[in-house]
C-alpha cells in the first residue's frame, strides 16, 4: 500500500482536540503546506508541541493567529506576539519548557524511556512540581517523556517508502518527532525514488512514516 | 557614550576571551556582534543551537537560503567544515559540556552568579528557548550587557526576576567593567574606557571586590 | 524428525505470523531462517540491531562487504530503501515499540511468559546482547525453538535460569505446537505435523489449556 | 594546530589503567590499527567499554587475548571464548549490560544527563542494586551515564578538521562514544579534504575529535 496520499486523505487522521507535534524552528523546517491545509479545514482545539510558535504570518504561528490551538508546549513564544496575547487573555494555555529538555522529552517519548535526569532548570521555576534526584552529589530534575497523536514533519527529500533527508537547519525537531507520535505525516518538499537517498544519509528511516503528502510548489 | 560605541566596546572585549579551537554559542542581539571581532589568526567554531556547528556570517543580499537560519530565525551561512544535526544532538553538545563558552545578555545578574534573562512576570514572557541549557552546560558563561537599564543597576545583590540558572555565570562584561564571579563574590577586574571605580560602584547594586590587578579594559 | 526438518517447520510457521509492512527483528540461529519463508507478496522489513533496517539476504561468495554485517557478525546485504543509524537510535527503535515482532530462541519459557535465554550460571555466560531490550520493546515476542532440549522440557511452570525479561513472551512456536501466552496461562492453539495433544503434554512441564479451536499447524 | 598525528603521538594519551571506549560491533567498526598499536605498545590494566569483545583474532578481542584488559563493560562476550575463560578464572572482571542500556548510558555520558529510566532489565538480575522508579504505573530502572578517559573511534571518511562519516554498519557505537570521553582519537580509513563530507552527512561533528590517525592500508 502506497504511503503517498492526498492532503485530504492524510488530514483525515487529524481530529479536533488532538495533540500534535510539528517539526521546525522559527518556521525553518515547518511543514508549511500541511499547516495551510489545517487552517483551510479549520481543525480546532489542538494541543501543539513544537520548539516555538514561529511568526504570526509564517509556519505554525498561523495556527495560533487563527485560534485553532488550545494549548502549546514549547520553549519560546517571543517571535509571535499573538501567542503571548492569547496566553495573557487566558485563551491559550502555554507551557514553557527549556529547549534541550523539550528535545530530550520528545526523544524519550520515541525511545521508550520512562524519563531522564537533566541539570537544566535546577534552581529555577522549571523545577516546580518535579522530582529532584541527586547523583554523585549533583542535583537533577526528572523529566518525563512526551508523545503525540500525530507528528507533522517536513522533509527536504522523501523517498516513496518514507525515508527522509532533511537539508541543513530544517532538521531540528523533525527526526525526533517522527519517532514520538502514533501517526506520522511527512510533507515532501521533493519526492524521490527509492535509492536516491543513500541508506547512510537517511535521517528518518521509513518505518516511522505513515503518510507522505506532496509539498512541491 | 552612544549605543553603538557601547555595544562595540562590549563585543570587542568579550572577543578577547575566546581562544583558538573554542566552541562558542552566541545569544541573540549584542552577543552576535562578538563574531565580528575575532582575530583572523584564531579559529573559533560557532554553534547554533537550532542544529549546527560552523556558523558563518550573514549572507549577501539575494543569497539567502531558506533552509539555513540561525537560532534567531535569521538567514546565515556556514563555514567550510560545518556539520548539521538534530535538536537532541544539539543540546547533547550544549548540556554535555562540549561548548566552551556561551555569551548571552541578561536582565539581572547577582553576586552568586545567578542569571535572570528569560521573563518579566506579567510583562514579557518570551520563554527560555535554549538559554537554560546553555547556561548550565557551557564550560564558561559570559554575560555581555549594558551595565544598567534606563539608569537602573542590573548587577544586583540578588536577582528578583525568575532565574535562568543558579550560580552558573563566570564573567560579566559591560561597557563599564569586567567582573569575575568568584566564591568570595564579584571581583572588579577591569574598568571600561571611560569608567572609574566610583562610577562602577554607583552603577552596581552588588558589592564589588576590587582586584589587586585592576586594569583598563583592552578594547583596541 | 531430523533437525533440519524441525527447523523448517518452526521457521515456516513463524513466517505466517508476519504481515505486510511489519518491522521484524530476527535472533541469531533458527530465527534467521524465518526470512526464507516470507511470501513474495508481502514486504517485511527486517531490523538489525547493530544499526539498520532493510536487512537483505546473505551476499554471494566473493561479494562480502566488510562494512556490512548483521548482529551476529555475519556478512549480509541490504534491500532498496534500507537505512543505517547508530546504536542509540537502533535501541530507541526497539525499546520505543517501533518493532512489530521479535523472534528469538529460548533456553526456557514459562506459564507467565517469562523468558530465559541469555545465561546458564557457571556454564555459559555469553551476555544478553540486545535480547533484553528486544523482548521488552517489541510489540510481539515470538519464541521459536525446539520443544525440548535433549528430551527435557523447555516450557516450564516457572523458569529457573536467570530471566531475560518477565512476562513479555506472546507466542511460542515449536515443531510440536503453537502456544499462546494468555493471562489465564498457556493455550495450546496448534499441533505440529506429527504431534498429538498427549505428545505435547508429555514434552511440556507447564500446564496447558487446550484451545477450543485447536488445529493442525499450517506449514505448507 | 593539526589534529592529524602519528599513532605514537596519539597513544601518548593512553596510559595503563585508563578507561577506554572502543567503537565497533563484533569487529565491524573497530579501530583496528589503533588496537594493533596498543598491543605493540603493551598498555595494560585497561577498563574497556564496548558493545562486545569481538573475536579472539579480530578487533578488540585481541586485547583480551593479550591480557591487557582488567575489566570489560559490555553486552556480549559469547563470540570470544577467551573473555569467558578469563572471567571464570577471576583474571578479568566482566560487567554485562543490555545493549540498548549500554548505548543509552554512553549517550547520556556525552549528553550531560544524570541518568535515564529504562524498562529493560526489570524483573531480571540486571535490576540488582539499581533504583526502581514507577512512572504511570510502569516500573523502570534508573541507569546512570558512562564516560571514559579515551574513546577510540573508527571513521570510514574523516576530514582534516575531524568531521566523521561512518559507512553502513560500522557506525554502531562510534558516534556515541565520540561524545562521551575526555579525549577522542579517530582512526581514519580514508582521510579527506574539508568539504568532501557534505555538512548534512557528517555523523560526528569535528568538535568532538582531538586526534586523527591514519588507518589506510
**Biggest sheet statistics of chain B:** 10 strands, mixed
CATH superfamily of chain A: Glutaconate Coenzyme A-transferase
How many β strands of chain B by DSSP? 15
What fold name goes in the CATH topology slot of chain A? Glutaconate Coenzyme A-transferase
Structural features, described:
The complex is a heterotetramer, with two copies of chain A (217 residues) and two copies of chain B (220 residues). Chain A is of the alpha/beta class and 217 residues long. Chain A has helices at residues 7-11, 32-41, 61-65, 81-88, 99-111, 174-177; strands at 19-22, 46-49, 69-74, 93-96, 115-118, 132-135, 138-143, 148-159, 164-165, 181-192, 211-214. Chain A has a single domain (7-115, 146-214), classed as Glutaconate Coenzyme A-transferase (3-Layer(aba) Sandwich). Chain A has six helices and eleven strands. In chain A, strands 1, 2, 3, 4, 8, 9, 10 and 11 form an eight-stranded mixed β-sheet that branches. Chain A is globular, with a radius of gyration of 17 Å. The two termini of chain A are 25 Å apart. By secondary structure, chain B is an alpha/beta fold. Chain B starts with a helix and ends with a strand. The mean pLDDT of chain B is 96. At the A-B interface, helix 5 and helix 6 of A face helix 2 and helix 3 of B. Strand 5 (115-118) of chain A pairs antiparallel with strand 5 of chain D, so a sheet runs across the interface.
